[in-house]
Amino acid sequence: MDKSIIDYISQYIKLSENEKEIITKQNFIKQYKKNDILLSEGKIANDCYFVIQGCVRAYHIKYGEERNTDFFFENQTITPISYQTKQPSQYYLCCLENCVIAVGNEERNQKLLEQIPNLSLLISKMNENLLIQKTVEFDDFKNHNPEERYLLLLKNRPEFLNRIPLYHLATYLGITQISLSRIRNRISEKNA
Amino acid sequence: MDKSIIDYISQYIKLSENEKEIITKQNFIKQYKKNDILLSEGKIANDCYFVIQGCVRAYHIKYGEERNTDFFFENQTITPISYQTKQPSQYYLCCLENCVIAVGNEERNQKLLEQIPNLSLLISKMNENLLIQKTVEFDDFKNHNPEERYLLLLKNRPEFLNRIPLYHLATYLGITQISLSRIRNRISEKNA
C-alpha cells in the first residue's frame, strides 16, 4: 500500500533505500467508508492526507445546500487550509467512495522531515504545482461559461465525469443539475 | 528602494547583514509606465516580479474582451504560470499605474539561491501562502453571488476599490459594468 506514496515522492526527489524503508515503516494508512467525514466546518484540521485509493470531496454549506469546491483522487495530497492557518475550517471533507488514505499530522511530519530533510524540497515543489493548478482552474472558471467549463473538465479531468455523481458535479461547475443535464443533452446532440 | 524587498523577505526568514547587502547590490529594479506590458499571451515568461510601487493587472482576452483575473499591488510577487511551466502564457500582465518593480529571472535567482540558500525556505513559505490565498479566493468566488463578492472585496481588499477603475473591477468580479453600478447603488441605498 505504501508503494504508491514512495512512487509519488520519487517523482519529485530521489529517495535512498534507507529513506524508502523509513517511509514504509510509518503506520499512517487508514481505511474510510463512503460518507465518512474527515473534516467539518468550524473544526481545526490537525491532519493532512494523501489519497491512496478512493475519492474525497470538499464542500461548503451555503444557504443549507452543499456546494462542492474540489475532488481529490488517487495520488493527490489534501492539505486543508485550516491545517495551515490553524483557523476553523470553512468547509467539509467527506469520502465520496470507500477510501484508503495516508494520514499525516504536524508531529509526524516534523519527525519525518528530520529523518529525510529532502522532503522539504518535495513539499515546496508540490505546493508550486498545486498553486499552478489552482490558478489555472480559477482563471478557467472565470473565463468560461458553464458549457465550456464542462467541456474543459471532459478534456482535462475525465475521471471527474466517470466517478462523480451529476448532482455533485453540478454544484462544482456552479450550476443546477437541470442546467447540467441540458448542457449534456446539447453536447450529445451536437455529436450525434 | 530595495528596503521593501528586504523587509518583505525578513517576514519569512532571518537575513544576516551580509545577505542584506547581497540583495541590496542586485541591480534588478526597473521603472515601468502605466499601460506597459510585462507579458503577452502566447509568449513564454522569462521574468518574475516583485511590485515595489504601483499596480499590475493580469487579464485574459476572451471574445475580444479583456477579462481581469488578478491585480498585484505593493509587496506582492508575480510569478507567471508560464515562468514555471515554460509553456506560452494564457494571459497578459500590464501596468495599471506607473510602477517600480524588481525583476528576477532564473539565472539571477539561481545565483542568489547559491549565495543565500535560506531563500528556498522563503519561496516555499511564499508559495504555501499564495496557495492558501488562491484557494480561499476561488472558493469564495464559487460560493458567492456578485453582490456578495463585491462586499467581500470591500472587506478583504479595500485597495481594489480605491485604485482599480470600475470597468476593470467588473470583469474581475465576473459581471458587466452596469451590473456593478447597480450593486453599488443598492449597497449605498441600504446604507443611506
Number of helices of chain A: 9
Identify low-pLDDT runs of chain A.
none
What is the CA-atom radius of gyration of chain A, in angstroms?
18 Å
Q: Given the C-alpha coordinates, what overall shape of chain A results?
A: globular
Q: What share of the residues of chain A lie within helices?
A: 40-55%
Secondary structural class of chain A? alpha+beta
Largest sheet of chain A: 4 strands, antiparallel
Query: What is the CATH first-level class name of the domain at 3-115 in chain A?
Result: Mainly Beta
- CA(first)-CA(last) distance of chain A: 43 Å
Number of strands of chain A: 8
The oligomeric status of these chains comes to: homodimer
CATH architecture of the domain at 3-115 in chain A: Sandwich
Q: Please, what is the CATH homologous superfamily of the domain at 3-115 in chain A? A: Jelly Rolls
Percent of sequence in beta strands of chain A: 15-25%
Largest interface: A-B, 27 and 28 residues
Order of helices and strands of chain A: HHEEEEEEHEEHHHHHH
> In which order are the strands of the major sheet of chain A placed?
1-8-3-6
Tell me the CATH topology of the domain at 3-115 in chain A: Jelly Rolls
Mean pLDDT of chain A: 92
